[in-house]
User: What shape does this take?
Amino acid sequence: MLNNKSILITGGTGSFGQKFIEMIFDGFSPLRVIIYSRDEFKQDIIRRKFSNKLSEKQFKKLRFFIGDVRDKERLYRAFKGVDYVIHSAAMKQVPACEYNPFEAIKTNIHGAQNIVDAALDCGVKKVVALSTDKAVNPINLYGGTKLVSDKLFISANAYSGGKGTIFSVVRYGNVAGSRGSVIPYFKELIENGEKELPITDSRMTRFWITLEDGVELVFKALNESKGGETYISKIPSFRVTDLARAMLPGCILKEVGIREGEKLHEVMITKEDSRKTYEYDKHYIVYPHFDWWKSQRFFTNGGKLIEEGFEYNSETNKEWLSIEELRQLLLELNMIPLRNEDFNIILKRTV
Assistant: This one.
């Protein structure tokens, strides 16, 4: 699928981009992988990191392109000869988007439109855009901009024609252990000696997804998408209180109040979308509801239409992680902070 192909990742210096680089060179032999981002310092860090992790032959296929998704002319230059584009660049911090709304719109909405235009005009075969649970029934500006972005990519299939660029979306929530998520924050607090962990709301639940899961879903979209699909992984839920106890057994939990723009639970599929959502072995696909979309041409076989009124919600999910299961997953991610012998004793007692 990706062998001898040119792949470009916008915002490729982030957590997703780094894991994508690892996994694509581990499983495929691409012609080149282009990291498109605006921060030359981060690009240098990634360059030095992968100069040691990849073989010399693989490293020569890794390219770095300074540019911003707001700059359409630069995108046109970068997309020349590119087969696949993964769009992960975005303003993602909820408070930053609330305080800088015009900047968020320029990057997340205007940038998405620039990606669509450049991909169509440069002959890119497929574009996969990364979405977020916050785009579902959005309550903050970040979610609102990503909702618009998703709509732009799905509707772009109507402009590409029968044999043009294929656009699809991959949606997931906060990635376990990624930069800016709660796990590194808890880890830092614990390593600094804190015995009390802040919980915004004791009822809060989240979906558990790893970077590997996210990249695998993108691979699936690149392989089988026909235009307009939104892919969502089947993944377990967990309680944030259980996460805190898994990271620091016996910890004191302090409820500090939900933050502005924060949801109690993650929703990936709404009840309204259930009428056009199909369930597969390991994922769901939400299909578009447009006149141009024809199931015979675009539908992926093997799915089953879900019951109308179904909502994929971290609170009502059927699969849950226990404290022990969370602890094991955190150990695999190297996210269990081991401060001293006392902590090791507590850990053994709680297993």
